[in-house]
Amino acid sequence: MKKWNPASRAPSRRGAARTEGTTTKKGESLVAVEKKFIEKALNDLEVRNFLAQELRRASVSSTTLQKTPIATRITICVRRPSVVVGRRGKSINELADKLREKFGIENPQIEVVEVMKPDLDAQLVAEKIAHQIEMRPRVKPILRFALKDVMEAGAMGAEIRAAGKIVSKGGKAREFVVRSGYIKKSGDSVRLVRKGTCTAFLKAGTVGITVKIVPPGTTFPDQVRIEAPKVETKAEKEETTIREEAKKVEETPEKESEEKKEQPKEPKKRTRKAAKKEEEAAPDKGSEE
């Protein structure tokens, strides 16, 4: 007799039809949500690139988009806000009209913020270096002077990197790096480091500039401060003892005065002279009666 082999059994068409033809509504909704997120991110990127191109003269540092049910708030951090606003707000109104027509943004509200310390903004420093290299391609001194300005502004650390056709036309691509101070390059604490990139266009080719700055006052999670116990010298001990004695001297008369006020007054004691005077006065009063 032949033995029955379960592997030789053909799969049922009923189960295959179920697995092939079913698509859950949950999966479709997840795909639709992912598409919406991707479309929103791409649209925001296009708006940022458009604003950076239009406001090139104002030196744009960063742009943030926030959509609300009433309007779309656009915050632009720039080096020169007067270029964005224009005379009597003419240029900012024109910019709002362009955003409304080109990207379909309803009721755009543009807010312009001035960068108070441009030497600590990585993006502005990168754009400044790129402009200087395009004007006069002396890369090494430009990078050194820029690093000096960043560190004098109060940064904890900085690194500037330039790579590309630095030498001349037909030469190999080279890379120059200048750094100073304390800076993180890996791990989760890299988020605390400001980063900016820009491209300089030369006749020989392009030069890419990357700037990393650690702003003043940043505390990294791996930085631990151990304070040594204070050791008092002889002179400091003598000063503390003198101060304690002076405090005690000042407190004692105040305490005595308070105690005197709190104690009740005792009646005066009768002396012998006072008693004799009273006895002499007593018979005189009886004779008069």
How many beta strands in the DSSP annotation? 7
* Uncertain parts: 14-23, 285-289
The shape is: elongated
CATH fold-level name of the domain at 119-214: Ribosomal protein S3 C-terminal domain
CATH architecture type of the domain at 119-214 = 2-Layer Sandwich
Please give the alpha-carbon distance between the first and last residues: 163 Å
Biggest sheet overview:
4 strands, antiparallel
- CATH homology superfamily of the domain at 119-214: Ribosomal protein S3, C-terminal domain
Lateral strand order in the biggest sheet: 5-4-7-6
- Tell me the strand percentage band: 15-25%
Summarize the structure in words.
With 289 residues, this protein is an alpha+beta fold. The chain is built from 8 helices and 7 strands, in the order ααββααβααββββαα. Among the domains are: 29-116, GMP Synthetase, Chain A, domain 3 (2-Layer Sandwich); 119-214, 2-Layer Sandwich (Ribosomal protein S3 C-terminal domain), CATH 3.30.1140. The chain has helices at residues 13-21, 25-54, 81-85, 90-103, 122-135, 139-152, 234-262, 272-288, and strands spanning 60-67, 72-78, 108-114, 157-164, 174-181, 194-201, 206-214.
SSE order and pairing:
Elements: H1 13-21, H2 25-54, E1 60-67, E2 72-78, H3 81-85, H4 90-103, E3 108-114, H5 122-135, H6 139-152, E4 157-164, E5 174-181, E6 194-201, E7 206-214, H7 234-262, H8 272-288
Parallel strand pairs: 2-3
Antiparallel strand pairs: 1-2, 4-5, 4-7, 6-7
Helix pairs in contact: 5-6
In short:
This protein has about 290 residues and is α+β, with helices and mostly antiparallel strands. The chain has helices at about 15-20, 25-55, 80-85, 90-105, 120-135, 140-150, 235-260, 270-289, and strands at about 60-65, 70-80, 110-115, 155-165, 175-180, 195-200, 205-215. The strands form two sheets. A four-stranded antiparallel beta sheet has the order 5-4-7-6, with helices on one face.
